[in-house]
Amino acid sequence: MENSRRKIGRTQISTSKESQEESQEPKGCAPTSDCGTTLQDLPSQLIMEILSWLPMKTIFSCKCVCKLWQGLLLDPHLINLHLSRAPISLLLRTIQKNRKPRMLHLFDLQGNNIDCRGSRIKLKKKSNLPDAEFGFVNSCNGLLCLCEPGKKDPIYVCNPILGEYITLPKVKKDVKVVGAGFGFSLETKEYKVVQVLRIMGTDPITREIYDHYEAEIYVLGTGSWRSIGKVMYNINAGFYFNTFVNGALHWEVMEHNTPDFIRAFDFGSEKFRAVPAPSAFVRSEKEFIDYMRFGVLLGCLSISDSGESDHVDIWVMNEYGIKESWTKNFVITNLVFERHHLDYYQPIMILDSGEILILLNEGSLLSYDPREEVFNYLSTYGVRSKFQAIAHIPSFISLRDVAKGENLKEADW
Question: Of the given ranges (8-22, 50-64, 181-195), which has the lowest mean pLDDT?
């Protein structure tokens, strides 16, 4: 069909075994220069400055050189320095029916490296992931929150680079986790998980039926959940995507008559609040109802609006909290397929080339060039099933330090 595909190219991201072992790991602990100076002769601050600029894949090789280098990579100063400079990477989780997810795929997208086999970063074979069903919740400073709302499994926080994860305490048997989020408080320097519980039952005295939402906070390292009271609405876990920006997590309220339909949870104040939406955005006029996907593009809150059948709009809030700062940065009219009401286009990140990396539904990864108005399919070798993709900044922040080692499981380096 003429309209079914337009200007579609094809490139590749590799997850093949060959790309995992394409280079020899350096031997020895102290490389020397022609003048006889070894790396150990350099000041440690200078070594850390050099290491902080290296691509993640190179740092992976460096940690295998010797204990000295491994120790440097665990130094708090280098960890923070590297985090401040680390480029955004792409993290994939395969979705296979009747099988638990046990493999993550990480791609270094520094520069214009998206079509290079070497973009794949070798992780632990099993990434030491929890043996349970889970989906991505969101990523923050290299730590990843995993949860499957509605299931009996607990919430997990992991660092896929270090092969670490912790298991948070389960909720009571008579309540249900319906939403969760993960973030960092700049004020207290604490990592926190918020969960929304649906409380249903019958009052034993009045026999009245009750049904309401309550929110709880878990500060990593404290060992217990803390109630922050009743809330009027749920965190829509299925409708937000890596939306942690400006210290808060964001999602859409599903009531269509609500003018400010964007809600946020601030991890500093531990409060829910409304965020101003674009003035020109009228949800009631949309052709499709399940059409919005929230995200973060270039550090700004964004909305991908697939509410019309012939185009997708991408809105960006250029100044956080300022209603007038919303701008429609991209209008994509050259869609890959004729729109179906269940299709969604989820922007993941803007690459250095200016192309937009987009997840189409749960099985296709695309790059879109707004100048040429061209889509490219991105083939992922080794990933033959549907997958979930998320923008992720890898880091060496250890849960041993952040969570004080509570319920920690880790892989050996």
Answer: 8-22
Q: Which amino acid is at 30?
A: A
Q: Is 264 exposed, middle or buried (0-12, 13-18, 19+ CB in 10 A)?
A: buried
Per-residue pLDDT tens for 91-133?
888 776 666 656 788 877 765 445 455 566 656 555 567 777 7
Mean pLDDT of 383-387: 70
Per the CB < 8 A criterion, the answer to whether 359 and 54 are in contact is no
Residue 310 CA to residue 268 CA, distance in Å, equals: 41
| 100/105 Cα distance (integer angstroms) | 15
pLDDT at residue 51, rounded to an integer? 84
Share of the chain above pLDDT 90, in %: 22
CA distances from 240 to 28, 37, 139, 368 (A): 46, 52, 12, 21
> Considering Cα of 403, then 405, then 406, then 409, what sign does the dihedral take?
positive
Residue 350: both structure tokens together? 């803007």
From the centroid of its chain, how far is CA 289? 24
What residue ranges in 68-224 does DSSP mark as E strands? Answer: 89-95, 104-108, 120-121, 135-140, 143-147, 156-159, 164-167, 175-185, 190-202, 209-219
Q: In the structure encoding, which two tokens stand for residue 101, read together?
A: 């997810």
